[in-house]
Specification:
single chain, mainly alpha, 12 helices, 2 strands
């Protein structure tokens, strides 16, 4: 129960007096418990927020949320500014079109059905992936006689390859206004998700923001020939795929722990560590209620797909 809900706890136990030890009876244990409760009560009166909103770099110093949240807030603000700038660009473009066209001949700017379906299907795909481990394990064990970790790893590897390749072979042509609105929705969703995650796990939110936001700020709905660094953006965004980035992190951690091993041994260790990390994250999610796997599949993966669609869509810049 304590581990499942992340409750920090200690165990105090009294013992009888032995040869050279001091007796810890019920009275002494009670004094210790009372002192801890009084100390926490006094600490709560001094703090304006709850305990988990403070960082303790040492035993006599603490950092308030008002200090360590500022860098993350600035990063999130840049995402909102990016979304606002794209929206303003759309409004200016629409106003210029209104000056050139009559109201009777005006064509609808946004295809709401197409935009809503794209956003909805991306999130449905993420939710299905989040709920798929039982199905993948069942299929792998009954049809291919695979172990649980092998079934899950192979299934998620195939899903990763599918999400990476389907936009390379299924190019589409879409209106500039529609794909721009999809980009705005994805940016707002990313910023909102970072704020929500930061309230529960500041480290995860900060790492995600530092890694993802610089690349996302460079993603803009443009024609393929309008961006000189499009190929580098593709490579960077592929490396930021939730499953690809986790594999890279595990591989780097394996190298730090076994720097003297040859390359084949490191690759094999990384392969095994990736399988174990995937299984452990799913087990922690199902049994102990850990949110990391759920956030990676139901939040990060759909947003990654939306930005991948923005990058791989063939569009034309409207004439000014």
């Amino acid at each position: 129960f304590i581990y499942r809900f992340g409750i920090e706890a200690i165990t105090l136990e009294g013992f009888k007096k032995s040869a050279k030890e001091t007796e810890a009876n019920f009275y002494q244990v009670g004094r210790i418990v009372e002192s801890i409760v009084r100390s926490l009560n006094n600490l709560l009166e001094r703090f304006h927020q709850s305990y988990f909103f403070y960082l303790l770099p040492s035993t006599d110093r603490y950092i308030s949320i008002g200090l360590y949240m500022r860098p993350l807030v600035l990063i999130i603000a840049s995402v909102f500014i990016k979304a606002f700038s794209i929206w303003q660009r759309l409004q200016i473009s629409n106003e210029m079109k209104k000056d050139k066209e009559d109201l009777s001949n005006k064509v609808e700017e946004f295809d709401i059905g197409s935009i809503a379906s794209e956003v909805l299907w991306a999130h449905i795909f993420g939710v299905l992936i989040m709920a798929s481990p039982r199905f993948f394990t069942l299929i792998g064990s009954q049809m291919f006689n695979l172990r649980t970790e092998d079934s899950l790893y192979i299934s998620f590897a195939l899903i990763t390859i599918l999400t990476l390749l389907w936009r390379f072979y299924l190019r589409r042509s879409i209106k500039y206004e529609n794909i721009s609105l999809v980009c705005v929705i994805a940016l707002i969703e990313l910023a909102t998700a970072l704020m929500c995650v930061a309230m529960h796990n500041f480290s995860l939110a900060l790492v995600t923001a530092v890694v993802y936001v610089p690349v996302i700020l460079l993603i803009t709905p443009h024609h393929e020939s309008a961006s000189r660094f499009r190929c580098s953006q593709y490579i960077a965004w592929i490396m930021l795929h939730p499953f690809v980035s986790s594999a890279i992190v595990v591989m780097g951690y394996t190298y730090l722990n076994f720097p003297a091993d040859p390359v084949p041994s490191l690759l094999f260790r990384s392969y095994r560590a990736n399988k174990q990390a995937l299984v452990f994250s799913i087990v922690d999610s199902m049994i102990y209620g850990n949110w990391f796997y759920n956030i990676a599949t139901a939040v990060k993966l759909p947003m990654w797909l939306l930005f991948w669609n923005v990058m791989r869509s063939s569009i034309a810049i409207p004439s000014r």
